[in-house]
Design a protein that fits this description.
Layout: H1 2-13, E1 18-19, H2 22-25, E2 42-44, H3 49-62, E3 66-69, E4 88-91, E5 98-102, E6 107-111, H4 116-125, E7 128-129, H5 142-147, H6 155-158, E8 165-171, E9 177-180, E10 206-213, E11 215-216, E12 220-228, H7 231-245, E13 249-255, H8 257-267, E14 278-286, H9 291-304, E15 310-313, H10 317-328, H11 330-337, E16 340-341, E17 344-346, H12 352-366, E18 371-377, E19 382-388, H13 395-408, H14 424-430, H15 433-446
Keywords: FAD, Flavoprotein
GO molecular function, one term: FAD binding
Pfam families: FAD-oxidase_C, FAD_binding_4
Length: 461
């Protein structure tokens, strides 16, 4: 059956659209973190929505599972096949056109295989901003960004990817095409079905194109780094910044002393405000003048109130990039420091100080000898609570300790990275059974054969 299907796929897509040699398929068979190796039956590379639809139809007729893949930059193993050599990886990388940029209507229409950075560049060339931004934007594809509902550094101002999607084109599990590429801000005619395909990691259908919302490009930016006594002071600083510079805040990052020490040790970068305690990185942007003076006022007030111990305001774009480099190197330097258990969690913003305190005490009691590397997007409640461990520590036990505290604060075990195959069992443990039952009913309705990215988000039936 598998060879027959491969022959039919090859006949439809041609040599450029089908990979069957192991060496050619290798980059598609393992995730970016190299935690989930797989073995596909083949890799298909359709170049149009019609080709995607035909691939899905052929696989459905053969009963073969499909694994949609964008830039394969995800952190939860959601875009790689299992090791059975029976699943077909569907790469969207050849569908990379930007179909339209509308600077007046503030929209951009792109195919799923368009690299996010290229979409950002197209928006910038039109004098506009596509505000979703994260470390992998140079290789992540638009379809994957939508399928995972990617977050990033600008969520505090612009929201998650979900809030930037106006319309979608989707191929369903039977190969039918649903075209909802409407560039409308207000459309209340019936179900908002596109939401079913945002953040569901290709388990209900395949996004092939999207209309994305743009925003006016700010003319002024102010970036500051402040040393703060503790997370409670950082929370007060966030409140102050909201009061003084309001919706111009586009990033508010909390960085632990452990994080900066790792960056200093493994990347040779030094913080201008020290690494002893906690640090806050704030970035604000506006089209109106006076932003820098307003940010200076925030820093001055924070220092007077002793919610900040030291601070520096970038004098140039180069200095701002240097401040951001401290934050952007944390993950890389953590990897160099040894094995860690990663937690992409969120709690209510006001609960962050208490969560950090309790989680630290729980780990100290339940997993002595571990070291916490906490950093992330305090402005939207998302903390990357990573735990450096030794050979005597079990990852599952660490997960249980951290996620137990997350539950007590009404949080989520996955703020922006998704579930993939990495957190399937954890999701089942931490989501209410009624929610899981509803998710399975939606899956059964849209993918009755269970062939769309099986084993991701939900356990196999």
């Amino acid at each position: 059956m598998t060879q027959s299907l491969i022959d039919r796929l090859g006949a439809r897509l041609g040599p450029a659209g089908l990979l069957t040699e192991e060496a050619d398929m290798a980059p598609f068979a393992i995730d970016w973190r190299r935690l989930f190796p797989g073995r596909p039956a083949c890799v298909v590379r359709p170049a149009s929505t019609a080709e995607v639809a035909d691939v899905v139809r052929l696989c459905a007729e053969a009963g073969a599972a499909l694994v949609p893949q964008g830039g394969n930059t995800g952190l939860a193993g959601g875009a790689v096949p299992d090791g059975s050599a029976t699943q077909v990886v569907l790469s969207l990388a050849r569908m990379n056109a930007i179909r339209r940029v509308d600077p007046v209507g503030l929209t951009l229409t792109a195919e799923a295989g368009c690299v996010l950075k290229l979409a950002q560049d197209a928006a910038e060339a039109a004098g506009r901003l596509l505000p979703v931004s994260f470390a992998a934007e140079g290789s992540a594809l638009v379809g994957g960004v939508i399928a995972t509902n990617a977050g990033g550094i600008n969520v505090v101002r612009y929201g998650m990817t979900r809030g930037l999607v106006l319309g979608l084109e989707v191929v369903l599990a039977d190969g039918s095409i649903v075209d909802g590429l409407r560039a409308l801000r207000k459309d209340n005619a019936g179900y908002d079905w596109k939401q079913l395909f945002i953040g569901t990691e290709g388990t209900l259908g395949i996004v092939t194109a999207a209309v994305l919302r743009l925003v006016p490009k700010p003319r002024h930016t102010a970036t500051a780094l402040l040393a703060v006594p503790d997370p409670a002071a950082a929370l007060r600083l966030f409140t102050l910044a909201q009061e003084e510079i309001g919706d111009s805040i586009q990033a508010f990052e909390l960085i632990s002393g452990t994080s900066l020490a790792l960056v200093e040790t493994h990347a040779g970068l030094r913080s201008p405000v020290g690494t002893a305690g906690w640090t806050v990185l704030i970035e604000a942007a506006s089209s109106l003048s006076g932003l820098r003076e307003a940010m200076e006022g925030v820093l001055g007030t924070a220092l007077e109130r002793e919610d900040a111990l030291d601070g520096v305001l970038a004098e140039s774009g180069r200095q701002a990039a240097d401040l951001w480099a401290l934050r952007e190197h944390v993950t890389e330097c953590e990897a160099r420091a040894g094995k860690s258990v990663k937690h992409d969690v969120s709690v209510p913003i006001t609960a962050i100080p208490a969560f950090l305190d309790e989680a630290g005490r729980v780990l100290e009691a339940g997993a002595p000898g571990t070291r916490v590397n906490a950093f992330g997007h305090m402005g939207d409640g998302n903390i990357h609570y990573n735990v450096l461990i030794g050979p005597e520590h079990a990852s599952e036990a660490i997960n249980g300790l951290v996620h137990g505290v997350v539950d007590r604060y009404g949080g989520s075990i996955s703020a922006e990275h998704g579930i993939g195959q990495y957190r399937v069992a954890e999701l089942a443990r931490h989501r209410h059974p009624d929610e899981m039952a509803l998710a399975r009913r939606i899956k059964a309705a849209l993918d009755p054969q269970g062939l769309m990215n099986p084993g991701k988000v939900l356990a196999r039936a």
